[in-house]
Structure formats: structure tokens, C-alpha cells
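Input C-alpha cells:
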């Protein structure tokens, strides 16, 4: 797995395709090319390997359009983040507008026990449409009171805190958790050193 899958909802994992989101100049975009998006979608179960092969082929023939699709996916991701974490109504309206376009290309069909949107065509907009529909579905979850952002000052990763006591402070205990505990420890040691 190349991307993080720690959030408890794959669309929140998409929000985490930015490293050091709150780190200003240290911020790192993980979805730098359309191929990155195809890889994320395949890893996350949003698209089959057959669809991925078709999309890679389409992207190789129209790189400019693939790049525009990538930019719109980033825009959708950032709108979802701003709506969920900053309560930004403009971002929510922008995401809703993208959603109206994203359901216009699909039919609502039953597959087994589940109802889902089925895209009519496999073309370059498919990842965007599925991601936008997924992001709107995320906003409809009934447990968003569990939505939390890693307490590291720069990390910015988000997740659903499903711990029984709702006290999960870090995206990853081994990463942000250990680093912040170590920092707090040294700060305490330093403070002690300055005492008379
Ligand atoms: Zn973190």
C-alpha cells in the first residue's frame, strides 16, 4: 500500500493525501499526477484494475485533460475538507455543484443487496465522479461527531475516532504519537533543568 488507510472511511483517507497539511511550506501533495489518482482509487477499492488500465491508457493519449481532472479532484478534496473542518458554506456549495454533475453521468442500480451509482462510461472523468459522490456520501454519515484531526501541530491528518473512550489523539501512535510524546518529555526535562 502506497497511501495511508487509517481514517476509518476511505474518503477521509483521500483527505489525507496531503502530508503536513497544517505545516505551511512543509505541506506535501501526494496526488501529483493523474496516475497517482488512479493508483489511489485502485488501492482504495474505488475502481477495478481493468478500469485503471483503461484510464491509464486514456490519460496517456490526453495528458492535458487528465491533468485538468486531477486538479478538479484536488479541488473536490479541499472543498470537502473545508466544509467538514472549517464549516465553510461556500466549499459545501462548490462540492454540491460538483455532485450534481457527478450523478448526471451515472444510473442508480441494484447489485446484489446494494444500491449504487453505476457510471455509464469509463472515461477520464470517472475518478472525479466517483470521488465526488464518495465525498458527499461522507458528509451524510451519522457518526461525524467522531471526526477528529491529529493533534500534531503540522500533520493535519483526519480520522473517525472509534476508540471506546473517544480519546484517540494521533493519526498514528507510532508516528505523530511517539514524536509528540518524545517532544513533551524533552520539554519537561528541559524545564526541570532550569529549576534552581
Ligand atoms: Zn498525525
Amino acid at each position: 500500500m502506497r497511501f495511508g488507510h487509517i481514517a476509518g472511511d476511505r474518503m477521509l483517507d483521500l483527505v489525507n493525501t496531503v502530508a503536513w497539511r497544517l505545516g505551511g511550506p512543509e505541506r506535501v501533495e501526494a496526488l501529483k499526477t493523474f496516475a497517482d489518482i488512479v493508483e489511489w482509487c485502485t488501492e482504495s477499492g474505488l475502481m477495478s484494475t481493468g478500469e485503471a488500465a483503461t484510464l491509464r491508457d486514456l490519460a496517456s493519449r490526453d495528458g492535458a485533460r487528465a491533468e485538468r481532472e486531477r486538479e478538479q479532484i484536488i479541488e473536490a478534496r479541499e472543498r470537502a475538507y473545508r466544509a467538514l473542518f472549517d464549516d465553510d458554506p461556500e466549499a459545501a456549495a462548490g462540492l454540491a455543484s460538483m455532485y450534481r454533475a457527478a450523478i448526471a453521468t451515472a444510473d442508480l442500480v441494484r447489485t446484489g443487496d446494494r444500491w449504487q451509482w453505476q457510471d455509464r462510461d469509463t472515461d477520464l472523468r470517472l475518478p472525479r465522479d466517483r470521488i465526488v459522490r464518495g465525498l458527499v456520501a461522507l458528509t451524510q454519515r451519522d457518526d461525524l461527531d467522531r471526526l477528529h484531526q491529529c493533534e500534531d501541530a503540522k500533520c493535519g491528518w483526519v480520522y473517525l475516532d472509534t476508540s471506546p473512550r473517544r480519546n484517540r489523539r494521533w493519526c498514528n501512535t507510532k508516528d505523530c504519537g511517539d514524536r509528540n510524546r518524545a517532544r513533551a518529555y524533552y520539554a519537561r526535562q528541559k524545564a526541570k533543568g532550569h529549576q534552581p
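The pocket of zinc ion is lined by residues 150, 152, 155, 157, 170-171, 176 (CB under 6 Å). The mean pLDDT is 96.
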